[in-house]
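Quick question, first post here. What does this chain look like in 3D?
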Amino acid sequence: MSNLAYALSIDEIDEVPNIAKIPHLFAKGPIAAEDYDMPISHEGKYVDEAIYWDDYYENDSFRYEWNNGYLEVKEMPTMESSQNVRWLISILEQFIRVNPIAYFFIVDIGFKMKFPNKTTIRKPDISIIRHDNPTPPNLKDCSYQGVYDMCIEFLSDSKKKYVDHDTITKKKEYCQARVKEYYIIDAKKTHTSFFRLNHRGRYEKIKALNGVISSKVLPGFKFRESDLYKQPDLNTLINNPVYKSYVLLDLQKEIQAKVEERKAKEEERKAKEEERKAKEEERKAKEEERKAKEEERKAKEEAIQALEIERKNKEKALHEKAEAEKIIAHERKEIQRLKKLLLEKS
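> Answer (accepted):
Ran it through. Tokens below.
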């Protein structure tokens, strides 16, 4: 990674410098030597530590590290490895924002490691300092006086010296300096490895559980190794159980609030619908009750009418009976009269 890219802060990482300020990139034809002084690498040059700090530590053209007196240049990144860096930084930023337990740096903040047989100054691509580190960082300094809790290096060149530098030399140094966790991210995936100090002070590989790497330096920080290369958009991770606890929590809260609001509105709609149904049932019950009373009233009226008809029929029958009895009585009298007349004539 170039000094320019590493000098960007998290908030500025998406900003692209004005490329128009680099006229030689747009020059037509070869650039004359007198118009542009090509910087020359001093890799392998022997300088004492004081000269390194003064003349090479903040070099604009090369990312120099110091290995016991000799200058070493960190490899140039590829676009592919830059995307690995960018994605990992994005989730680290999310985690630290939610869990402010550490500082993390993406600029060339070097730290010195003293060993029995040599001294080195290294500039990790990403470095982590926990807040409980015995050597708190001075945020105004350009270097760190303690030992990082985690170092991350991005390997983008297939040249053996660069591969060995990160996978052998730095691994040994970081282990001896007691850097608790060391990640090597290889853009080609071949040498990607994750190490953690064990109780014997040696690095052992962090075992991925279902493809997920979990940190102990940053408890709760985890990611799928494959995502370093897929680089999914953060918006797609908010429902992923690996990232849900720290990625875009504000967005998650906003979405959850909208879900809760939608649920509340749905519950309110259901309550109103239930209330409407209850009122409709009550109306129907009252209508049924009214109908029942109407039927009862009609039944009573019909019963009364039936009784009235029965009474009239009985009265009529009694009247007819009385009339018949009168006729019979009259006829009997007439018979008696006729019998009497016959007797008289005889």
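The longest helix spans residues 249-345.
The chain has six helices and 13 strands.
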